Fold these 4 entries.
Entry 1:
Amino acid sequence: MAAELYPAKNAPRASDTATTLQQYQRHNNSNNNASVQCCNWQGLYPTIRERNAVMFNNELMADVHFVVGPPGATQRVPGHKYVLAVGSSVFHAMFYGELAEDNDEIRIPDVEPPSFLAMLKYIYCDEIDLCADTVLATLYAAKKYIVPHLARACVTFLETSLSARNACVLLSQSCLFEEPELTQRCWEVIDAQAELALRSEGFCDIDALTLESILLRETLNAKEAVVFEAALAWAEAECQRRELRPTVENKRLALGKAIYLIRVPAMSLDDFANGVAQTGVLTLAETNDVFLWHTAARKPELPFASRPRKGLAPQRCHRFQSCAYRSNQWRYRGRCDSIQFAVDKRVFVAGFGLYGSSCGSAEYQAKIELKRQGAALGVAVIKYFSDGSSNTFPVFFDYPVQVEPDTFYTASVVLDGNELSYFGQEGMTEVQCGKVTFQFQCSSDSTNGTGVQGGQIPELIFYA
């Protein structure tokens, strides 16, 4: 993300300042004229912001230097005390406070050089330049030196780029940085897309406290067998961090008491017998007791929680006010029914509710798809049974699909089955569903007659 605060016309970019001063230096070296030596570069820039920008990462008039980065990977960065003190209360205390030290060189081993430069660029130039690889480290620098507007921009960037792939890592960091809104957003993603989040590479990088908080979570939408597999993968990574061989014993050691947060008895007997019991992570006594818990009339006491997780309750957005059927009105011949929709808050679309046969019970095969700007985000081919009623019948994607606000998405279905079907009527362009507002519009992909006013895809099933 590259964003600019208070943009000024023709404001110099950081890349321009070095070029400008190099030109002056070359000119000065080739001409000893005093007027050239005192070249009025300041006159080229009409605002103080632009003149300060020239000083960014520049040795000219620098009165302090920072040695940034861990030993062996440091970078020496020039600075100007006055500019830095105006941009940060920490720098002000460092240079002008009662306990100020008159050091010409300051070592900062706990901040990465690119992130430190990103912070200075904001202080000098009023420019925010963030990227996914360094935004967490930049947030750390902004928090350390109390640069609140830059910190807020980092959090906004993280919220915008939040996905199941990075939610667990960001959860760990958001707690460290005391960012409750970001923490809540992370939990929303982890709950709704739990299996994707647990299977992500980033899950193995979280700390032990974050692991425990996730394993404790009542609202995870995941099979307990997937939770166990993820915990085992984390334990193997933890063994590597501790420089231990990833044996069964060491994995159990790495998990510690967290293993009892996995709701092993809540798994199906098949999942337990063919999964957990085969890993050897549980003791023989624990394995035997879980088998007895599943099969014996007198169940043993277990150290594991036995109640299944509640997960999230799916919500349904119904876009029609009535439905009907007519002998020759709605047929399926491999053609596409499609509708576009947008939401005002991030949601996770789990699937669709579809109509079925109006001529008695029937089985359908449905290919459902969710796209954004032509790119498929979720596709599934599913069979479902229609009992001949006017009810809707749910069909689900393998994983819920994250849907961002204020962007139109295309929901499509191609049905194969009994041609005569119920269909929706009196469609609404806007539907309020809890705290989420859905807007609907016709889709050019629809070749079977579905639109805003009538047709198929009467419901969107989602988590919010």
Note: The first helix runs from residue 14 to 29.
Entry 2:
Amino acid sequence: MIQFGGRLLADLNGKRRSEGTGAAPRGKKVKDEPSPTPSPCIGPPACNGAGNEVIKDPFCDPDNPKKVTFQDVSAAAYKIKDGIHHSPCIKSRMSSMLDMEIYFKKEFLQFTGSFKERGARYALSQLPKEQKAVGVIAASAGNHALALSYHGQSLGIPVTVVMPLIAPMMKVQACRSYGANVIIQGNDISESKVHAQKLGQENGCIYINGYDHPHILAGQGTMGLEIIEQVPDVDAVVIPVGGGGLIAGAALAIKNLKPSVKIIGVESERCASFSEAMKAGKPVRTEVSSTIADGLAVPTVGVNAFATAKDLIDKMVVVKEEYIALAILRLVELEKAIVEGAGATGLAAILEGLLPELEGKKVVVALCGGNIDTTALGRVIDRGLAADGRLIRFVVTVSDRPGGIAELTKLLADMGVSIKDIFHERAWLKTDIFSVQVKCVVEARDKAHSEELEAALRKRYDQVAWLPKYF
């Protein structure tokens, strides 16, 4: 059981007191300044090879990974029941379209918009009394920071979150509105983590890893308990994977209650760190590039998460970015749900056809987060329309005589195609001087409608370039 966490916290607190490190008064903000006598509470410093100091986290030790147990998840469920929303798990209207009985576990309906609240609530509740007075610190660009901030305020525990420069401003402001001490530091989450651990060491705050702290894993596992309660005859559960905390906890709970259930993890092609860890037999650093599913962009999966989940996962799949965008679009249109890229990745795997073995089965898909940046939502929907064959780009060469372009627009109108953008080019055209090249972005009803349009254009014009979905 995870009771070692409480003992370790107590031991560390005792070590701090014996070495004379003063604890910050209750509610006092962590100071972002150097300390001449840093506390040893988080472990000895090391170097990551890039000149940055790395502080060892005793709760996430690669040399001694901690496997969470079913008893830990059960204990977490009891502890957080009064502070966490029992999210619905509802049959989807997409079921008939996809030839399977799909249920969506709507974790985006938690107060702060993600499943992260489960682990955050449990980790905070398990702190010793003296540590609750001092507070905790974490590095996060979004959901973990929001969850800790909200539940820290609810439980009266001071919370400091270090957020990278790329963190969405709406999430930064939300954390502050929940009473957290927010520090903007680091070009990415790795740099923020180094800074957060250093501050935690200096100020006596426990660092809480958002996807690998054992109490976080146990808390996330309560989603699995709810799934079995809500859909007892489920055949498979599809879960997005980033650092691995959610799939580790949920798989543990589900497999203990119903071993026959297939656990399927899904990652973005831009950061397949758990798949690489499964191949290597241990967490390995993986290259990360920009992704719609930014919440899953964790270059190295958690050591505890991997140790707990590796024998419980039946299949890992990697999805293309365009299908994540399409999944977000489908959820907006058919489920009336706003879900972030990370939360929609499970559905994306089904839409891409990566899970044909689930046809005719009863499947639960975790929609684990809804905190998509407002400014990005429109762009993601456009990408989803393009992936669905409904937003189309083409270039056609038409006569530059009077009525040439009018004839093209009439053809589009007669077919019920909506023009989103149109641009004509004369100077760089190498063919007939009395021709003009017209570039169009149009919207069709569906893929079949777009194919009908392409056929009509090729029949009417000699030069038609049907452009790919993406540049």
Note: Residues 3-18 form the longest helix (16 residues).
Entry 3:
Amino acid sequence: MTRRSSSAHNDEKVAANGHKASQNGTDPVTKLQDEDNRKVELGKKVTLLRGISIIIGTIIGAGIFISPKGILRHSGSIGMSLIVWIACGVLSLFGALSYAELGTSIKKSGGHYTYIMEAFGPQMAFVRLWADLIAIRPAAMAVLSLAFGQYILEPLFMPCDIPPIAVKLATAIGITSVMYLNSVSVTWTARIQILLTFSKLLAIAIIIVPGMYQLFKGETRNFENAFELSNVKLSGMPLAFYSGMYAYAGWFYLNFVTEEIDNPEKTVPLAICISMVIVTSCYVLTNVAYYTVMSAEELLASEAVAVTFAEKLLGNFSIAVPVFVALSCYGSMNGSLFALSRMFFVASREGQLPEVLSMIHVRRHTPLPAVLILYPMTMLQLFVGDIYSLLNFMSFMRWLFIGVVVLGLIYLRYKKPDLPRPFKVPIFIPVVFCLTCFFMVFLSLYSDPINTGIGFAISLTGIPAYYIFIHFNHRPKWLQQVLDSFNRTLQIILEVVPAD
């Protein structure tokens, strides 16, 4: 047992293996309250509107504004590309509904991690956590942040190129501000997310409304022979779907904060369904708007489709588009960090990460250590890492583990038939989605075996890590003392305590 620190609110029990010991009702930690006499815990502050803003705000990033051309290139025609956008929206809805069942039957935060833990045990859950922590999430956050830095500076430097160091400095400021916001207040994080979500929808409306006006004026020449099949290749369709599913990724983030959702049995399914209908409609109508102004060839040649569209149709107002893209990226950063910090919080609570990560700030009631854990890795990758190649390594791992999660839903139907399921989807929905995920994983192995193999190897390092850090708990005494000292020191510096 570790020594107690001198400050009363920093008292805690630590078991010999470095994880929290079970606490009974008489332990002073469990009775801890802040100066306003409130329990130190994460409250249920995610309402339906905030839930919708988390999902929409993380799905709609920079992609729809910059490069919808991946789908067009691989589908071969304008008509087929629109069908792919709709089909990917429906498939993503299938995945989201599967997660809605999991979120209402397993009422724990943590998303993928929690569901894999429940269905397949701690080792597979740790492998997922390990890949997320050391590679996937810092790289994804750095890429989003770089897009923010690039587009927030573009109006200042037009028409010149932006110096790379200026982009990285703006990016670092963006990352730091998102971390600070999530550290200070759950309520304000949610309010800012709602505001940023409305700004994204406004940006999309600025594209859709003039585009629809052009369409009703009779600007339909680019839709003539929309289903011309001469350029359509069946071999390209899976890659088109891969691009589309990537554009819709983010529908699972609400499940990372289940414990903070007000009335999750109703809020989770409703927020997911409303969000996916809005996102699919926005994506399809935005692409239709693009095609009223640009031919397929012009769209494929454009570096940033929304900017090209605005220059052709909106004149001087086009300078506002990069700002909206930057705000969109900022919203995705904010929403994903809000959700991901809860996964690290739950993993610490399960004893698979240092226990300080499952502690809450004594006054602000935010999971401060879990929010900050991604900061050093993200900044490191921002300045020294080859981020884009790392994302290529890891893109297939996302679909592999999402497929495993939905497979876990099917498995739990038979393993735990009596588990309460307030929201239950027809079995064909998870089956179709699960097969889609594994098909995309197979496609990655076929189309890019080297990068996929490297990503797989990075993830497999989680297996020895599990046995070293989790399974074998007979650590040397000196190492245990260092870990205990590290936990206590961080707890004092960050002013955090275990949740009540």
Note: The first helix runs from residue 48 to 59.
Entry 4:
Amino acid sequence: MTVTYTARVANTRFGGFSQLLLLWRGSIYKLLWRELLCFLGLYMALSAAYRFVLSEEQKRYFEKLVIYCDQYASLIPVSFVLGFYVTLVVHRWWDQYLCMPLPDALMCMVAGTVHGRDERGRLYRRTLMRYAGLSAVLILRSVSTAVFKRFPTVDHVVEAGFMTREERKKFENLNSSYNKFWVPCVWFCNLAAQARREGRIRDNSALKLLLEELNTFRAKCGMLFHYDWISIPLVYTQVVTIAVYSYFLACLIGRQFLDPAQGYKGHDLDLCVPIFTLLQFFFYAGWLKVAEQLINPFGEDDDDFETNFLIDRNFQVSMLAVDEMYDDLAMLEKDLYWDAAEARAPYTAATAFLLQQPSFQGSTFDITLAKEDMQFQRLDGVDGPLGETHGDFLQRLLPVAAGTAGGLLGRRLSMLLRKNSGVSEASIVASCACATAPDGAAQDCSCEDPLLDPGLREPEPELPAGPELPVPAPGPAAEPFTLVPMPGPRGPAPPWLPSPIGEEEENLA
């Protein structure tokens, strides 16, 4: 069973992890104590032979061998090779857990799409989820020794209720030499299609969503099969194992304490137990043991996945979700905070201090600036309010020219400026007036823009000189007339101007 210690390290405190060092189940001591005793026994045997068995000449030769092994043992890149290997194994271990086929999403989809409160509707829902659970059992008994011991044959699967005898006949009659964990998924699809034809699934969209969830479930089962099939390359595992074992084989000789009377460099102290060599063995060999345990998490080690527990849990909750909980709703009631403007759940006395802490508004929320630093800066060399500066720049860019396409664009731009500045349409119309002369001979029309200072406007460009039009001589028979300028060709509105401005122009015209 998985060793869980999360609650013990929920809060960081002094010596919090020291309590974990005393645990035995799932610990590194349980994994490594045999190798550690073996290494220490061999070391002490060599030390005793050097001190009490070898002759003086043999001792001198052994001392040279010790210095040689100690000098060249550091050439073995143990930490480099072992670090990459353990990182790869840990990532692979967690990815395998993410591929465990959990039926939670599938059972919610079955409960929401396969309808019918009668016995046949119930039979559809339970059978669909049983097929999903059967597919998970078939793949887990193929990759997990614990599940295989629980269901060693297909007969055990039938007796456990995951498969009927009729389904077993169809399963065994299917002639295929490959793993057939996918067969229940095909049964699931066929049964869902039949439910759609009978109207239990009301539309094709619901059937599509149901089959998509099944494909996700089946894909996880397939990934477990591939993880079991494709292991970490054997050469990588062999290199790491040989590197660790050869390094500590060299340490057995190279870390021996020599006679201080011989005056060898670094051998001024004579001890019987190599404390730091044992610690180094504990760390490196323990690292290798971690990789050995996590490389296949479907065994029966302390920290391997609890596959049998997951089978029981998944089967039970899936049947509850699609059977007893189908169409089972509590009476709708107003919640406790129905009339509250700001809903907030209450706090207990142990958590009341959280109410005194301000809510997080952003990392720049408390930054303060000087008043002069908060003023907007105008364009270089331009005085006056910021709005007039922008308006004058646009008028210079697009001068108003009557009787041309530019004149239309200028009028639309002027209306855009009026609209953005908050001037109403009534004030624009009131500012433009046409006065008739007392004798009725001519009209004097003028229109002043209330937003632009006449002194700041550019003079309108003069038309190019051309032949003058003949003017009839005044006389009693002559009738008064008015020259009307011919409008220029009106093209499409510029794409950067919004359409409501064009509509407003049409209304004013």
Note: The CA atoms of residues 21 and 210 lie 48 Å apart.
